[in-house]
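Hello Y.,

Per our agreement to keep a running log of every chain we model this quarter, I'm adding this entry. I've kept the format consistent with earlier entries: sequence first, then predicted structure.
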Amino acid sequence: MQLKVREEKMFFAGEWVGKDETFNVYDPQDNQLIAKVPSANKSEMKKAVEKAHEAFERKESWPVHERMSILNRAADYMEMHKEKYASTIASEGSKTINEARSEVKRAIQTIRISAEEARRINGETINFDQNEGSENRIGYYYRFPIGVIAAITPFNDPLNLVAHKVGPAIASGNAIVVKPASVTPLSALLLAEAFMYAGLPEGFLSVITGSGRELGEILVTHPAVKMVSFTGGGEAGEKIAHQAGLKKVSMELGSNSPVIVMDDACLSDAVQSCVSGAFSAVGQNCIGVQRIYVEEDIYSEFVWGFVERTADLNVGDKMGELTDIGPMINETEATRVEEWVNEAVIRGAKLQIGGKREGAFYYPTVLTDVPEDARIAKEEIFGPVVLIYPVKNIWEAVEKSNNVDYGLHAGIFTSDIEKAFYTIKKLNVGGVMVNDSSDYRIDAMPFGGVKGSGLGREGVRSSIESMTEPKVVSFRLNERLL
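Predicted structure for the entry above:
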């Protein structure tokens, strides 16, 4: 059945603006056209940044309680329309309807956490008398918003990753201009709808849709933009870092996440957690499990259990309540994954299950004996493929885990506290999940990586710290009055 094509408008400084120039948004499952979205040009992006700057400059004092109220009202609106949000995420992207509902729930939490953290943007008193000659000085510092934030967001979490930039920006009193992924702009526009309902002052949020190549440089290089928050690929991130110049930059650039399974682990728990971590969101997940290192004594049993559990996953209609795996974001990406897997197999990798593509669908795939210098072992696959290796001990597992140019999350399954702490200390990553797969995150925690996985940290409180600066205040007291 042909669905009615939505004619969307973009959110321009508090107003919904349509254009004759549009681009199409398709459902990746069947390539059906679902929406026409305005295609902004460079001039419109420049004006959006200028409007944001004007709004920020005009709002000299924005009380914390007002920011909190706006954020909570936006979350209330999302809660009231959560099924609409979920169906939008699922229709424009890769997630199943159940995965989409989980993302909506998380996005609501992200906005509510932002409201809570707004009340905790505190400073500290400073003991100036620690310095000889400053005995008659007292003072403190407080944090102030920096201005306009530029946000560039990806397709794989089209609502929550936008919320992770918008929520902290508003909580800290900044204006923000969002450029969402062109394949999944509808969820970001729905978030803007919530903030419009909530009474956000005009200009403090714009969601500008269109080509990244057309709009990205204008957004990143505009002198009014004081910080760029980017989530996406490493190549684009490196380009943005060069373009941005002397301004704050926060980047989450993906990973090739390892999980270590020791022979003292609960095997069934490790299998279940790693299957979920590898294949949720069709593997299009920056902290998804890509490499698993298993101690030799339990390797064969682990692989057998992992393959058996993978075979139980239901691949099909993403709107189906029982579906586990939907399509990838488009057929081009599914074809790329297919090519990487075939390349590894040609070089000697063994296909345990999967390796099958149907249009944009790529079936969950398990590989063993993958050469460690193969592209699929070194780079981020961003698809439903996992590699399983045997290792002799914890030291070998950690060494191999670190042997890539990424370091976002890692996991370890063990009942030995010393092994757990060894990995905590030695794994070169931004987060270590003990008795969980790498695919574990709550929205309140600091989130980010090292090496090629990015710069800085997200998570609401961490983002607020990045989006504010400390200002020191010192009073020199008149000695005659002391």
